[in-house]
Amino acid sequence: CLLLVLLVVAVNAWRDQNQDWTKPIIVLLHPINADGRTNTQNYINGLNIANLNTAQDYLKQASQQHRDQPVALYFKLGRELKQLPPKVPTDASLLSTVLWSLKFRFYAWQQRQGRDGAATVTLYLNYYDPSQTQILKHSTALQKGKIGSVNLFASNAHSQRNTMVMVHELLHAFGATDKYDLATGQPIYPIGYAAPNQQPLYPQQQAELMAGYIPLSQSKSKMPESLEQTRINEITAIELGWK
Ligand SMILES: [Zn+2]
After folding, report:
1. What ipTM goes with this model?
2. 89 CA distance to ligand 1 centroid (A)?
3. Which of 15, 113, 153, 199 could form a disulfide with 158, with the two C-beta atoms 3.0–4.6 Å apart?
4. Distance 167 CA to ligand 1 centre (A)
5. Where are the domains of the chain?
6. How far is the CA of 44 from the centre of ligand 1 (A)?
7. pLDDT averaged over every residue in the chain
8. In this model, does residue 10 exceed pLDDT 70?
């Protein structure tokens, strides 16, 4: 009957959205040479994900803190892909966002191969040579489909920042939302603060990971250097299903 069909669809959609954190989580990473430069290619050829151990520990500890249990999360370096994910639209209209998300899910389906193995989340890492690109375009991840398109610098000097961006996008795939003001880029009080109850409130010592910046005053903030200067606050933990 129709009611049963609707129930099954709803349950599946709900399951798709809410991660079961008691199960091991595999994050598959596909590097892509986004600017076609030799420097970028050399970086990808030597890519080592050992430095993602810090991200693994970070998420394990955050999970321990918020849900009294660590999380079993593993990063897995996948094949290099030759095709870039569809460009994130510059205008934020609903139609272009919806079209982009459909295109992106289609891209993920097209790129997928059996030998890639099982993955909970797939992140497409678009690397750019920092000597050529000074500012990276916005990265984005989808909770539906659990895929992310992440723009990164092809340089070891940027590895800590890259890791931070990757984890931020990963948490989007698990339902966490951005916590900064879209117009100003400033973290939103209190949801975008690592320590919203701190007295005095400023300067904050850490950034909330989904707000991306450390608030120094009501109107000033700075970018954290690494994951160590960030934390996942209660609100983000609730969005992740950790509370
Ligand atoms: Zn974000």
Report:
1. 0.99
2. 15
3. 153
4. 10
5. 20-175, 178-243
6. 24
7. 92
8. no
